Each structure stands twice: as structure tokens, then as C-alpha cells.
Amino acid sequence: MELTESSRNMLVETGKTLKGVERRLFMARTVRSFGIGGQRMAERELGWSRVTVRKAMHELESGVRCKDAYCLRGRKRSEEHLPRLLDDIRDLADGQSQTDPTFRSRRLYVRWTAARVRALLISQKGHDDKNLPSVRTIARKLNMLGYRLRRVAKCKPKKRYARPTRSSGIWPSSTRKPTDRITCYVFRWMPRPP
């Protein structure tokens, strides 16, 4: 069977306008009308994939509709777009890590936020601002590498005066009620303990 230019264009345009199951059923009916060798002819003349045509023929003959797995497709991870990203983050964090100031644990601290790590990746490691992932994604990558965000209270200074006693003369009338002290927090990352 020979296809004219107008019928070829009509079949290709109709195939482009349909989506999913309807498109595959149209393809299967068209290939069936071509007869023997119709799959090869559709591949050669119309540019249709033979895998899709086989799937369409199976759907037409069995009556079972195959579900498209759109949910299984998705965005690629940022490591696939930027293969050096994790190594660069690890280099930055390991170069600036310090031990616990109280020496009570073997954890290492880095006094950076995810925004600071992103800025350092741009300035020191030469990454491009528009291709680099967002701050939230970099925070997730830091967590994935074993660095954890922790809120740490700053040390409170020791009082240099003694507590007032009953004999000091300022007991109970002139003593002020202790005010709630606002604790400042600093974000630090710690690797997981071994």
C-alpha cells in the first residue's frame, strides 16, 4: 500500500493531536489497515516507534488498556545535573569543621547555614548561580551527607555577684523578678556518629 503525501501528513498530524490510549488505538487501527508489514511501514513512513505500535496492537487485540507510568517519571536528582556538587559540599564542610567546644562528644561542627554553603559554592568552587540548586535542596544534600542542622544555645555568662540573702538589705522588696532571657540559636551541622 502506497501513502500519498496528503494522507501521510493527515495521519502524522492526527497522531500528534491524540494522547495516551487514544493515540495508541489510532496507531493500531492504522497499522492494521496497512496489512502485512504495516509496523515497518508506519515506522519508515510516519516516524512512529515500533515499540509503541506493538503496545498499541496488544491493547487493540486484548482489550486491556496499559496504564502510562507518568508518576514514575520525574526530575533527575541534582547530582546527575552537577556531578561535582556533593564532592564540593563535602570539601567545604570538612575544611571548616571543628570539634565540640566542650569536648563531650566526638561530633564535628560547621558554623554555616545552607545559604552560606550555596554562596561558597558559587564563589570558591565556580558553580553558576542559575544552575545551582536552591537553599532548601542544599540543606537536604547536607543532611544526606551526614551533616545535621542543630540549634545550639549560646553559653550564658556567669554572674559575678552573689545571690542576695536576707541579711543583705535588698531582700524581698527591691529584688527584681528574673526576666525571660532570649536564647540565641546558631545552626551547626554535625556528622552522624560512627
What would your notes on this structure say?
It is built from eight helices and four strands, in the order ααααααββααββ. It folds into two domains: 5-62; 78-171 and 179-190, no CATH class. Helix 1 (5-17) runs antiparallel to helix 2. The model is unreliable at 179-188 (pLDDT under 50). The longest helix has 15 residues, at 20-34. With 194 residues, it is mostly helical. The strands form two sheets. Strands 1-2 form a two-stranded antiparallel ribbon.
Helix-strand topology string: HHHHHHEEHHEE
The number of helical elements comes to 8
Round the Cα radius of gyration to an integer and report it. 34 Å
Mean pLDDT: 79
Span between termini: 71 Å
Strand order of the largest sheet: 1-2
Q: How can the largest sheet be summarized?
A: 2 strands, antiparallel
Q: Give the low-confidence spans.
A: 179-188
Assign a percent range to the helix content.
Answer: 40-55%
Structural class: mainly alpha
Q: What is the approximate shape?
A: rod-shaped
Strand content: 5-15%
Number of domains: 2
Quick synopsis:
By secondary structure, this protein is mainly α.
